Amino acid sequence: MTQSSGSYRAERLEHTICDDDLESLMESTVAAILAEGVFDWHTPPESGVLRRFFEGLLLVPERDVFIVRAPDGSICGAAVLAHAASRSETYGTSATITAFFIVPYERSKGLGNLLMDAIITRAQSRGAKVLDCRVRETLPEAVTLLTSLGFTHWGTHPYFARIGDRTVRGLFFSKLLVPEEKAMQWQPVSTPLSVPHHGPAPGGPVGKPLTLYPAIDLKGGACVRLRQGDMSEATHYSDNPPAQAKLFEQAGCRHLHIVDLDGAFAGQSANVKAVEDIIANTSLPIQLGGGLRDMKTIERWLEAGVSRVILGSAAVKDPGLVRQAARAWPGRVIAGIDARKGRVATEGWAEVSELTTTDLARRMEEAGVAGIIFTEITRDGMLEGLDIEQTVELARHVSIPVIASGGVGTLDHLHALRQAADETPGITGVIVGRALYDGRISLPEALAVLEGSC
Question: Which parts of the sequence belong to the N-acetyltransferase domain (predicted)?
Answer without folding.
Answer: 25-178
